[in-house]
User: Which sequence fits this backbone?
DNA sequence: TTGAAAGCGCTAACAA
DNA sequence: TTGTTAGCGCTTTCAA
């Protein structure tokens, strides 16, 4: 069935008694073709299952019909479902517009995959996901002036980017918790170098306002010691609600609480700035913010395609969030 | 820097006073070129940062220099870090051989992305990650006779595939647990349609041998009810060790145990056939099997590239495993 | 509205 | 060992 070589534009032209250029025009929609000719062509190619050769098309028009997506970072980061969902959004909306997706997974800050992809001219544009940004990837893309969008990253203004409004979301969320009567808050975080973490902390601070003191936030990157302090603090009723900057931190906390025989929400209330499926399945369910990573991918992709097509597009886009009320607060 | 259009093979030929075909030969290594000429060419193109136009090359040689990777299945499946690690292995080893990687993420059993990728002839071969065995993707690839490898899937012999030896691993693992003195075992599983689950169950049965009875395995797909029975059983000392078919199930179990006030390993011993990072961070650490998904990707990729190059390659490859001893047994 | 023809940049016979 | 030449399949001027 697919053994025999594929049918070309020439075959179509011959069969229909028109020229190749006419067929090309009929298909692409560029240039005038009579309605009748166009229909004949379209019908014929559909009947014959004709699909243009992407390479030939690419060579002639110097466009690949591919976009690249770059996932860089530590393993711990890449493991987050976040990327899967992003990827899904990107693939789907790229596909809907006839683009295929290439992926570059560069783990240790080496951008080999990305560089090869660009240097080989395999893609028309690139989407950079979180973490990829402050490394050389950005400079590299800038230097090669290829269209690109970053997801969830950059302070560097002037580049096209899309993200959730973490600061705003976390502020509103924290305010809500305060309104419910919590006063002695503690924010737990890790990955303090991540831009998103800093944004979340900022939102928290804004919500707390002038009552903020530096002992209201705590880095728990190095597991046991810091967590031990937290548990002590809870026993001494130093806190009434603990907010976690992400679901990983929250999982850790919940583990420790259960080991220590402390229950939620009786002994301590718990909330999280980022609730994945893991948290929503927890008992009691954890009150948390939900961000839709899939949306992020979809939006980034449509911005990129606009950029590629030379159309107008916004420079920065901030997506919304949702609050998942649970039983933990 | 990259504004000015890229230098072509013609430019190189002109500059060096040789023909384009000589340059082509020097670069590809196919066909004879004198050592001297070859060096001149190689030096020059390095100096000039010449990179062949992948599309032109592809058009002329009808090969894309891309491989495709397909991730199909439910969200729950795709969320597993398994895919990330596979992907990483694939990207890296593809990259090492000069191939770029395209990704098709088809979520709901529709193979749109895959089909587009194939029909557009964007890839030279495909790697299919864990999918339902009767998946259309498989039929589609067979029909288009494009080289492909499946990872962790198919019973369908005759197709190229790579997987871990789940059956063997689970048998040995279970035997080890029995040797430690556990007698009243229970195997918890979900996703019973997955090939890998069936293999794991089979290994378990083999280890138990003729003492096996059907109430030694239990499907806990529908959370609460089945899990409730398990908890009851534990209280009645019906089991001394519970083995989970994967880390998801194990997480669920651990949650329930902690809610029920049962402790590991005092009240009940726990082990898992698949231990992700989540489990290894648990306290107490869970005794489990480790499979390296990255290896799977690497191996699959090298098999695929062999296939593409028309070289010999094994039809089936079974990779090893590791036992992570924890404090839970 | 349509066609002819010249590329796009590379590979691979076939000659030399 | 090297060069000549004819494509690979499509797009895109420029004429008709």
Assistant:
């Amino acid at each position: 069935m697919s053994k025999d070589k594929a049918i070309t534009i020439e075959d179509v032209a011959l069969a229909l008694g028109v020229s190749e250029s006419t067929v090309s025009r009929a298909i692409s929609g560029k240039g005038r073709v009579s309605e009748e000719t166009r229909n004949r062509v379209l019908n014929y190619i559909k009947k014959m299952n004709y699909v243009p050769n992407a390479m030939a098309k690419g060579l002639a028009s110097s466009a690949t019909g591919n976009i690249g997506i770059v996932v860089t970072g530590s393993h711990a980061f890449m493991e987050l479902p976040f990327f899967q969902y992003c990827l899904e959004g990107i693939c789907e909306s790229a596909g809907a517009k006839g683009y295929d997706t290439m992926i570059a997974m560069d783990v240790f800050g080496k951008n080999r995959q990305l560089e090869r992809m660009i240097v080989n001219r395999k893609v028309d544009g690139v989407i950079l996901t979180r973490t990829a940004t402050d490394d050389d990837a950005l400079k590299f893309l800038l230097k090669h002036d290829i269209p690109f969008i970053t997801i969830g990253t950059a302070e560097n203004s002037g580049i096209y980017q899309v993200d959730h409004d973490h600061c705003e979301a976390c502020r509103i969320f924290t305010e809500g918790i305060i309104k419910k009567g919590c006063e002695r808050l503690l924010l737990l975080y890790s990955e303090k170098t991540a831009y998103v973490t800093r944004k979340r902390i900022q939102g928290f601070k804004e919500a707390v306002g002038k009552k903020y003191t530096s002992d209201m936030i705590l880095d728990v990157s190095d597991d046991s010691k810091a967590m031990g302090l937290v548990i002590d603090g809870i026993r001494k009723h130093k806190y009434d609600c603990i907010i976690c900057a992400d679901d990983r931190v929250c999982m850790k906390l919940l583990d420790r609480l259960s080991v220590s025989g402390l229950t939620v929400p009786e002994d301590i209330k718990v909330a999280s700035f980022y609730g994945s499926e893991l948290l929503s399945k927890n008992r009691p369910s954890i009150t948390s913010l939900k961000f839709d990573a899939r949306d992020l991918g979809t939006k980034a992709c449509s911005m990129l395609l606009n950029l590629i097509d030379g159309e107008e597009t916004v420079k920065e886009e901030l997506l919304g969030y949702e609050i998942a009320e649970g039983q933990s607060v």
Summary: Chain A touches chain B through 55 residues (CB under 8 Å).
